[in-house]
Amino acid sequence: MIPLLFEAGLESNFDSLIVVTADRETVDQRVAVSRNMSKEEIALRRKAQLPLREKAAKADFIIDNNCSVDEIRAEVRLIMERLSRKYTSPHRGATN
User: Fold this and answer.
1) What is the pTM of this model?
2) For 1-91, where are the alpha helices, taking DSSP H only?
3) For 37-65, what is the mean pLDDT?
């Protein structure tokens, strides 16, 4: 299994972290369809990963993927605006 960002301890290599969340039933259904995985395979994969609530606690931004596509797009736009302001600020990297 390929290690993921948090599981590999690589989160410190990034300036900002975005975690996408969804309820377990939704995630399981999507994974079963998109990856043709059984419930048992999904459970094994989940067991190898950091719990979603712990990932969300480490995130700078969280996208709720239980919403409509329009709501998700609005969340992504807001995050993009915040990141754009953060990383284009004339004071970025300045020390006081």
Assistant:
1) 0.79
2) 24-35, 39-47, 52-58, 69-88
3) 94
